[in-house]
Specification:
- With about 325 residues, the protein is of the alpha+beta class.
- Helix content is about 35%, strand content about 20%.
- The protein is elongated.
- Bound molecules: dinuclear copper ion.
- The site of dinuclear copper ion has 9 residues, from loops.
Length: about 325
Amino acid sequence: MSSSFPLFPPAASTSAAEMDLLYLFIVAVSAFFAVLVIVLVAAFTVKFRRRRPDDVGADIHGSLALELTWTFIPFVLSMVMFVWGAQVFFDLSRPPRNAMDLYVVGKQWMWKVQHPEGVREINEMHVPIGRPVRITLGSEDVLHDYSIPAFRVKMDAVPGKWTTMWFEATQVGTFPIFCAEYCGTKHSGMLAQVIVMTPQDYEAWLAGGRSTGSAVENGERLFTDLACITCHQGDATARGPSLAGLFGSTVALVDGRRVVADDNYLRESIMNSQAKVVQGYQPIMPAFQGMISEENLMQLIAYIKTLKPASPEAK
Ligand code: CUA
């Protein structure tokens, strides 16, 4: 799109071109049929108008060929939109394995960004070009929505759970971030900027930032400060299950269900510890709802994810 007529925001991510193409296809198909219908309505109005007061219309009953045609063509077109759209959707919902992590928390009315290395920022997000970035998104109060039009990505920030999104920037520059979910008085002012830098500039920026310890280090400190460590020491006699190797594994619960220990499972098991009690353990863990912020929770879980099984024979 030409910049003198900015119908579209700049396309600055790997998924932007595909998204725009799909969008243009849907608009083109819709426009074609809208024009076709309007033209035919106008033409038929003239062609089949009543010419004499005693005109009687011809009585027409069905046409199999016509009905098959107007069923088949829209079917094919809508299936193209569906399959293509699903493909774009799946690409956008599956972050590449080598993605770097960023943690973003929305609250009335600002965006707080945390880098794994410990640097934090408010209403700005620095990212390197050419590297997939996975964002773990939380909310401290109400629904928000993290929307970066230049990357063609947006995701709801939902209180009580985490969502993820990812992108890979392809252009150095500064692009706006909007809150795209009405969240109160200053919703329209809940703006931020993503600053895309070359990898060298990004490293320099990270090194120059004030770090209060990496996310994992802070998480490890919280693990001790919140006394998680007293019950989750990792041995068989402990009051709580070992957390080593937990992330991504399947957990058996007291009620017989089996669940995968993903981000939201870990989050819920800390905030609302009675929701899913692990088989073989008593429901004695306190709930940390209201006692720990979303940001600290993200650090704590970043640390828990690093806990690997101690040794093969411990299993
Ligand atoms: Cu936050 Cu709208």
